[in-house]
Specification:
The longest helix has 24 residues. Helix 3 crosses helix 5 and helix 4 runs antiparallel to helix 5. 38% of the residues lie in helices and 16% in strands. Strands 3-2-1-4-5-7-6 form a 7-stranded mixed sheet, with helices on both faces. The N and C termini lie far apart (39 Å). The mean pLDDT is 95. It has a single domain, classed as 3-Layer(aba) Sandwich (Rossmann fold), CATH 3.40.50. The protein is globular. Keywords: Methyltransferase, Transferase.
Length: 230
């Protein structure tokens, strides 16, 4: 069965959130970057405006901007209702002090993505691809970023999938950063420890580092993986 847009709940984050989630430094931004499972985030659009180069990949990029926009409109109300019902699971501060403000920030990021997507797809900045099989060569990137997929969806995606996906990210990039490390319900992911053990046995350097970003309670750590020297 092919990938269906009906499976997706699009929810895009901004450039400033990426900087915080992944603790990206000015020198990191100069690297050859992959944003994996990026969805309708505005990171690529904003980076391109600043003359940086990012490749974003996600299976939703096989659809048109109009189709993605319609799916955002269809799912937005239920997302906000879900956040309202579970508002104690989140930290309300800074520019996001309420579910309504959260909606405004996310919609602004997704609108920026939608405006950039047609041109970016033509330019090869948005590529339709899905973990655990990505169409890139070994060490094609300096740094691969992946947010709100691995570990977040631990209940929905198996341990085997997680391991295969992380191994694929490590194949195509010298460094990998994954955020957050808790599940959608805020629990520590049961897949994290086995993956760390596997990677360390393979010679990878793994660090769990705190970041200056916490919206989901407990979601303030990022996994940094560095490939062994060849």
């Amino acid at each position: 069965m092919g990938f269906s847009l009906d499976r997706v709940v699009p929810w895009g984050r901004s450039h400033s959130e990426y900087l915080q989630m992944f603790a990206l430094t000015p020198s990191d931004l100069q690297l050859n970057l992959l944003d994996c499972a990026s969805g309708p985030a505005s990171f690529n659009a904003e980076m391109t405006q600043q003359a940086y180069r990012v490749i974003s990949c996600d299976p939703i990029y096989q659809f048109s901007a109009a189709e993605i926009h319609q799916r955002i409109q269809d799912t937005y109300p239920q997302i906000i209702q879900g956040v309202e019902a579970n508002r104690d699971d989140y930290l309300w501060r800074g520019e996001i002090c309420s579910p309504a403000q959260l909606g405004e920030v996310r919609m602004a990021a997704m609108s920026q993505f939608l405006a950039d997507f047609p041109q970016g797809k033509t330019q090869g900045r948005y590529i339709a691809a899905e973990l655990p099989n990505l169409p890139f060569g070994d060490r094609a990137f300096d740094l691969a970023l992946c947010s709100h997929l691995l570990f977040s969806y631990s209940a929905q995606l198996s341990a085997a999938f997680h391991l295969e996906a992380v191994r694929e990210l490590c194949r195509i990039a010298q460094q990998v950063r994954i955020f957050p490390l808790v599940t959608l319900s805020g629990e520590p992911s049961p897949h994290l420890a086995p993956i760390l053990s596997h990677l360390e046995q393979q010679g990878y350097q793994c660090q769990i580092l705190p970041v200056d970003y916490e919206f989901q309670r407990g979601g303030n750590q990022c996994l940094h993986i560095i490939a062994p020297r060849r």
